[in-house]
């Protein structure tokens, strides 16, 4: 008998679960639910699990703050609450309550009475990137979500597009934009930059970037000519990855971000990468680069802000330059939960949005660009490279 295709096997399993669900008693249903949650942990990334478990974020953040996950991960044996209490200078009874909740959602494992050990996800929670992600979700996004229903009820006749008078401002009692607010809070800014290290999707933009084809005819006779500008590139992770993959392609690689971010970058950067303070609303100082790249940045601007920023890029480009926008494309139908969650996070925190294909085409057309290719590299989020060039006058 031929082996069934994975999709057929999955469909058959789901059909069995649905059939069982109508006949099980409460005890057996609870057992099936626990088994399904355990299985889910094997088919989702730590970042996806973090989003799904946002209701447990208070305990996750507390655990990260006191170093609970690091202690569990570093131990080869399960640890008692008494030992953890002594190690972390915390109440064993309090830790027991926290750990029981974390175990109930699969973030740690209970092995006996008041005894716990690390799970796969615990390894990630012990790392700085996911711990910072927990802070970001709890300290900013959860707070804005609390203000979201009232704000939307008060402004239900219009889109959320004003980054100085939106849900974030209602939640935090400020007229500063989220970015300006973070600039005055180095700790929160640090959490955001660390969280950018998270691998939020499978797939790799470098696997679809047509760099080899694009640079064949691009001769670098001038050693100061720029190959790649990462606009809003945070700590430079994508610049480093580009140079790791293409160490011999000539041309400078430049990272641009806000001054407070650039100050945090360890220097010198590897591969001779240059860090430059830059704000999107300023004229682009790097002229005639081959690639102007921006990743998950335009989702933080309303259409009017995106158009102004993209026009600044267009003014710096020559006939050989290419704009590369790295962002997800929301399907018109059947969007996955994570894409919709990301859209709401953008709306609540920075009056931004994730865009559909039609919205991307209209936005770039308004900014004077023509899309030549859309190269999707990750599913189901549909993270894609949108390749565009300025429209000739």
TrEMBL record:
Keyword Cytoplasm: no
GO terms for biological process, alphabetical: methylation
Domain O-methyltransferase C-terminal span(s) in chain numbering: 161-370
Pfam families, per the entry: Dimerisation, Methyltransf_2
Statement: the UniProt record of this protein carries the keyword Transferase: yes
Entry-linked InterPro entries: COMT-like (IPR016461), COMT_C (IPR001077), COMT_dimerisation (IPR012967), SAM-dependent_MTases_sf (IPR029063), WH-like_DNA-bd_sf (IPR036388), WH_DNA-bd_sf (IPR036390)
Protein name per the record: O-methyl transferase B
Organism, scientific name: Fusarium austroafricanum
